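User: Show me sequence and structure for the first protein, then do the same for the second.

Assistant: Starting with the first protein.
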Amino acid sequence: MNNALLKKFVSSTAWSFISAVATKVSVVITGILVARVLGAQSFGEYGLIQSAIVMLANVAAQATTTATAKHIGQFKEVSPEKTGKGIALTLIFAVSFSVMIIGVALFFPLFFSNIILGSDNLKYVSLIVVSTITFIILSGWTQGCLTGWGQYRSIATINGIIAIVAIPGTYFLTTKFRLNGALLGLACSQLLIVFFSALACWKTLKEKNTTLSFKGVMTEKHTVLSVGLPVLLTGLMVAPMNWLANKLLAETSNGLAALGMYAAAMQWNAIFSHVSVVLGSVLVPMLAATLGGKSRKLDALNFLSGWLVVLIVIQPVIMFPELLAKLYGDSFLGRDFEITLILVILGSLLSAFKSGISRKMIVMDLAWYSVMSNILWGILFISGALLLREEGAVGIAKAFIGSQLIHFLFGLPYFIYKKILPLELLISPRILILWALPFVSFVSSSYIESTLYRLMIVVMIFVYIAATTFTLNTMFNEPVEIGNPA
């Protein structure tokens, strides 16, 4: 690919990946330690609360991050005044959503603890949960600002240091206070992220001579209406479905233990899916800045970079799922957890490819399509969860990957018609073979007992992916056409 584009992409994503690895690896390690202390059943309770936090906080944080980063990337070189008003509006957007959640928890405490968190015995931890939700949403805004200005190193440094502190801190609190301690550790780590990110954001705004201006912010309402709101609603089509599926599973016989397995598997889905979030933080501003031009190379980077990274990192997990089961403790051992883990991370591979479509639609102002299409996904997922919930964690995992696949296939005609997804990135024989590799790993892990033979297969798969990536790099090696900022 064009050296200048590739250099910019690599330099921008390097620190973002460090940040992502620090954050998500910290989450997984902490999850393993918490699971070993709590056991599968109590970890299932923890997983249900986490799904509520994701439903109420992470989707709002992602919407705020995306809208803020896109606005800054689009206007930072054009108008400091528009930039300041836009990010002020996204701050109002974030705070308003946080206040709404706090209001529900304060005025309807039993509803919040019993319905949302899953048990009336949890009403005393509602304050911790609400605080965590608020901190996550605010960190979405601060890190969106840093992302838009390209301050990836600052984000990586903050997240890395806090991740190092969070692991032993949360483990200590969990051993002392069990479930309450695990939740308190999560809240404290998010508070630290908000505090240090806000300091870095304030410093960056001063360096860029950009002032937050709340006067006349509605002149930049497109920032929320065309990006923030549809991304939020898209997330609100997804996260509540995951939360509802968790509740359905928890209500079955031995449901909390099964939910503990599913929650543990979803932690790995989160770390792999976060690759797309990292790339989105870099690619959305790049795509927004070149909206007026057509770049075949940027399209390839957008669709293939995150997908190829996830394709590589999931191979050992699919090949050796029993090793991860041992990390979580005796209550997670068995084929049920292994199959659940494999199905869930296959879903993360599909999500990585679909994320390229979502990023393209955001910069083309087609994000509202995602809101509508995710209604279909939600219906499919919950229907599958209802039908298969008696199969436990494996049943919910089947519903998860099945709904993802049907949803993707249903939207393909629209993506091709609107020229969102280049056809050459879909039907290329090389890419179709790459799609088949996870299934090769799955079959190998199921029927080959020898660790040495499985290792040899993983190495061969890595070599093939590397060779194919080099070929694809050559295929898309054409001059970049840069357009004017939109």
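Switching to the second protein now.
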Amino acid sequence: MSADAIHSAEDARRLARRRLPWMVFDYIDGAAGQETGAARNRAALDQATLRPRILRDVSARALGISVFGKLTKRPFGIAPMGMCNLSAPGADLMLARLAARYQVPHGVSTVASTPMEKIIEVAQGNAWFQLYFSGDGVGTFKLVDRAKNAGYDTLVLTVDVPEVGRRPRELRHGFKMPFKIGPRQFIDFALHPRWSVSALLHGKPQMANFEMDGFEFDRTESRARATWDTLNRLRDTWSGNLVVKGVLDVEDAVALKAAGVDGIQVSSHGARQLESAPSPFAMLPAMRAALGPDYPLFFDSGLRSGEDALKAMAAGADFTFFGRILQFAMAAGGEAGLAQLWDVLSEEMSIAMAQTGLCDLGAMTADHSGAGTLPAER
């Protein structure tokens, strides 16, 4: 019933808000500061338009696209998100099964609530490991070796968290990782019995990648010691694809390309870090112009529809990632809710392609001035 009620990302969010404890919903939904950064990016996406074209045969449309030489069945994947099992028990593996079905990358967070080895197995290899540098880096490079041994071929270094941003909605509820329950949380959970009973039956979500001996992680530990030397060391250590995520400055993007990084993910961490950061969407055209037409450029942050994803690709992205809305869908309707929202996003993308005279997304990414581009006034 809940899955059938999801006709848009906002439907999923509305249902999730009703069912999740306030602490969990605000952890997933919240942004830095007064959340003006999230509003700024949303406004940029809303203001952008696509160019409608008519009388073109768009009866055969393909939603697949190539990423690092591998054909995906959709032009969007799953952004790395920490502690997904808070949204619904088994959420990490729901996402992994979705990734396997559509052969899209599933970003596996350093602070996932399921071990990285299990996720890539269930995802049938369609998984990228997202890495945080923390402390002195010893534990970080242990995780790199572990990801390599688990079969990951793409590593995503997230660089926009030198310190964890202040998210007042999260802080007001006393949210912590590892998950801790005090009197305030107990009352919150008691008022949301459906979620609480399910969580109780399946056990408290943990940061699963640190339950093995020799692996520790403190979410509040400073990550400020990462430097370009750290990146060079990582590049020397990692022979697979290396993506750097959280890039919002063109000069930095050009330097990353020169340093041998294989792809850049334009992102503001869902506006959860620096409230005053520019809109990631607004930065895409300049990034593309500086990096050239063939350099892999990915995008996440604030996407709420398949049409949004097409806008991002028209602005210069080769591939996009959805994040928190997928958690809302699982909170609203479990795996059926996730499948329903994914179908909605796919249909939105396909219809927008038809309306803009586009059959092949690869043609658009090869020529960003072709059909489906942003209007000239931008």
